[in-house]
Design goal:
The protein is α+β, with helices and mostly antiparallel strands. The protein has two helices and five strands, in the order αβββαββ. It has one domain: Beta Barrel (OB fold (Dihydrolipoamide Acetyltransferase, E2P)). About 5% of the residues have low confidence.
Length: about 100
């Protein structure tokens, strides 16, 4: 009996001190289409005149960080593209899976 009480107390204190990791929600992904306005290689961003993203935002022109240098390197002003808009829980966003749809007019 004299060992049971300290054992239970030790288990209880260990359980109280343990921390459960915070749940990390997956980023949300939205299809995006638009026209490249400009490309900034230094900041690895592109200004895109994007159509409305249903369920997320209205049509607008804004700068998007580009995840991959390979994706950034295929972009030129005037290109029409489709991509995936990745939005993190903290509000950060970027484009991935960029596909050229043809030159703009």
């Amino acid at each position: 009996m004299r060992f049971i009480v300290p054992f239970i107390l030790t288990v209880f204190l260990a359980a109280c001190g343990s921390q459960t990791p915070k749940a990390v929600a997956a980023a949300k992904h939205y299809p995006l289409s638009g026209k490249v306005v400009s490309v900034n290689s230094k900041d690895q961003t592109a200004s895109i005149d994007a159509a409305a993203v249903p369920g997320y935002m209205d049509a607008m022109t804004m700068d998007y960080p580009i995840k991959s240098k390979a994706d950034l390197n295929i972009l030129h002003p005037g290109d029409k593209i489709t991509a995936t808009l990745d939005v993190a829980d903290d509000g950060g966003y970027s484009l991935s899976n960029i596909k050229l749809q043809g030159p703009g007019k």
